[in-house]
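Ticket closed. Logging final result for ADP-ribosyl cyclase/cyclic ADP-ribose hydrolase.
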Amino acid sequence: MSSSSFSTKPQWIYDVFINFRGGDTRRNFVSHLYYALSNAGVNTFFDEENLLKGMQLEELSRAIEGSQIAIVVFSETYTESSWCLSELEKIVECHETYGQTIVPIFYDVDPSVVRHPTGHFGDALEAAAQKKYSAKDREYGFSRWKIALAKAANFSGWDVKNHRNKAKLVKKIVEDILTKLDYALLSITEFPIGLEPRVQEVIGVIENQSTKVCIIGIWGMGGSGKTTIAKAIYNQIHRRFMDKSFIENIREVCETDGRGHVHLQEQLLSDVLKTKEKVRSIGMGTTMIDKRLSGKRTFIVLDDVNEFGQLKNLCGNRKWFGQGSVIIITTRDRRLLDQLKVDYVYDVDKMDENESLELFSWHAFNEAKPKEDFNELARNVVAYCGGLPLALEVLGSYLNERRKKDWESVLSKLERIPNDQVQEKLRISFDGLSDHMEKDIFLDICCFFIGKDRAYITEILKGCGLHADIGITVLIDRSLLKVEKNNKLGMHQLLRDMGREIICESSRKEPGKRSRLWFHEDVLDVLTNNTGTVAIEGLALKLHFAGRDCFNAYAFEEMKRLRLLQLDHVQLTGDYGYLSKQLRWISWQGFPSKYIPNNFYLEGVIAMDLKHSNLRLFWKEPQVLKWLKILNLSHSKYLTETPNFSKLPNLEKLILKDCPRLCKVHKSIGDLCNLHLINLKDCKTLGNLPRGVYKLKSVKTLILSGCSKIDKLEEDIVQMESLTTLIAENTALKQVPFSIVNSKSIGYISLCGYEGFARNVFPSIIRSWMSPTLNPLSYISPFCSTSSYLVSLDMQSYNSGDLGPMLRSLSNLRSILVRCDTDSQISKQGLTTSESSDVFLPSDNDPYWFAHMGEGHSVFFTVPEDCRMKGMTLCVVYLSTPESKAIEYLISVLMVNYTRCTIQIFKRDTVISFNDVDWHDIISHSGPGDKVEIYVIFGHGLVVKKTAVYLMCDESIDKGMDPSPEPKIEPKKNAFVKFIKKIVSSKNEEQ
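Final structure:
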């Protein structure tokens, strides 16, 4: 029957349905066949996976109808199963109705016996018919089964007895099935090592986005396996879609074909619509995609995209596709994915060491592990490849069956002369950079800055006139750079070698004519023979020990454009005036001189790294280094004092770690308004910092750990309003500055045994101040200025007569604290106050009407959601001796807001002189829902029994509060006095 006579095909659910007699074949042949098909990406129905879970015959019928190919495994006892025969009858029917393909396999039974059942095969068929059908239907049923057997056996298939190696037979059957399916599986790598988990990660994302148009980006550097992953995903899930398209090599098509965009649109439309489509223009193509694909559930893969226009013309609007559609894009440029607003970006990771070694071994040795005598060489090559699949495959194939000395030769020259095949692939990303500045940034980093801090590199290259902020971002997005731990910039070793090879190409035989020099032998040659030229912009020579090589500064005379200079442990004699005036970065570990020579021109330098130098003084005659931002003199064991910072007005980072003889920081440091890092770790001779340091409002990080002679941090530290990190362990400090907890910026602290985030550490610091044995006011400067109008009166001094005359004589009185033991004393006082005065008379108060009460010296409460505070009343119930005056023993009140992570500290003088500004400050730092704790800190002589707080809310809101506190005032008049007397009485009994 011709295909044109077939009914409309159903939507395939399975690629293959396997019909077999389980007792004969399930445990060996069929199981191997099933797993081989599955591993090839063929969606196979197998009764061990489905039937044994209770599937009914009608469900089996639907599975058969939904399978594109039926494999029928005939065995000796096949006809004993009426179930198998009924399935076979349905399979033949579906072939004749829908055109499904039938592939017979004859397992220990001759094909002729199946076509014309005889012997046990025929007898079993008759027995099955007798058992299955009634007498009147038996002949009809037997006849149908016999016809189905004959038809199925007449298809081209496989006779197992003709194949001695069953494993090879299974492989051939799988290959045959793949060719018979109505799609072509995409060819992927021969050795898919580590591929499956990467594929499943992306498929998992797709399945979670099944109700929308899902767009996924696969992003990574050249040769990392992006296309392989995309093809493997396509092979596994494209059967779920009736309409699909995989478009390869989009970058190449657009670069080599003037009508590339139009041809890509034609391919997409033709693949999905299964017709030959013609597109005359890009605009027409986008309109056709919109109109013709709208509503269709499609699966599209766009491989190797390098311009946003390609995406715009092929999938520019999600509305062009039906719900449940999936679009996968592979690219080296992250920006394109961000611009399209994809749902998920899969960042292709490099292969790990074990995966790399296995993949390399398959290509180099034709097995999963290296040969024993090549093991070390193989691991060295794998390390060089850095987990890049392309490099592992290319180099593995190149070294296959080569001798040991060939391996050693290849390894010795790889870094100098990288493999052409690998470099050609990697260079595509570099050549695709449209801006020469981006190329310069890449070449500078690959020669001098791999592994260094991103911000550090950015500052230096900006000083070179390069747009480093945007340029570095572009390189990261293009997979030419990566950001590693602690914001360091990293680069794949093969990309590094590619960049360096580009530089070498400019002058293969004369290194002095290249733009950048980094290779040890090349630099030695140029400096020894004075062959440097104006072409050189960067030079790095890293020696391990000082004194071995000595050069004359004259060798730098022609290097007029030298911007970047690294000389580690290099001895340089002669006139430093020969060094370039264009220098922006100097990294000179082991700088040999006792001070910087006067003729060493540094006025354009951005960063100076002179670690392990022999400097005694920074300079004798200061230069104005207007552009210097980073100064690192760490481990300079002879340095005694810092430079005069007035000559370094824009310094941002000062790093002086482990300078054991440094005893003085110049006072001009207080004038550095841009300074944000001070690192003085392990400067063991250094005394206390100049007071000007505490005025630096820009400093974010202050590190003093190991400065064993620093015994004091000034209370002025609270003025360092940008300070986020303070590290001062292993110093002579014995006490945390009282003002530190009032800092609004500090995030991390480590000093005096306290370490961690401020929000976690500050409560512990505060509790340390609660001890009656510790009075921080005895050794710190006033936390805030004391009011010159403050007057504090003790009621016991005026227990006869009233206070009226006294109060009238104090015209500047702002507050008064009256200490009363009995209500009779209060009644004697004819107290009147001016409008601005506050009088606290607790004796008429009942402690039970306070909103919140705590045992001891603190009270915790949550501000009600419906309370807009306008004030609060704080009450402390304490025990004391008659001669003790509470006001004299009060140290401070601390208010900790755990919700807002703020701490307010009010010293005694402030507490007893609260004015409207003070109250506004309290209220502004607390709001509805905030969790707050108030500590009242007294010295010796007082025992705090209870602390209570009553919140006063805005009148309009207060009325709605339930219960309202006001009605609670009347029931127990004078109860507070009775409460106090009870406590005093119990104290007297204790005595």
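The longest helix spans residues 135-153. No further action required.
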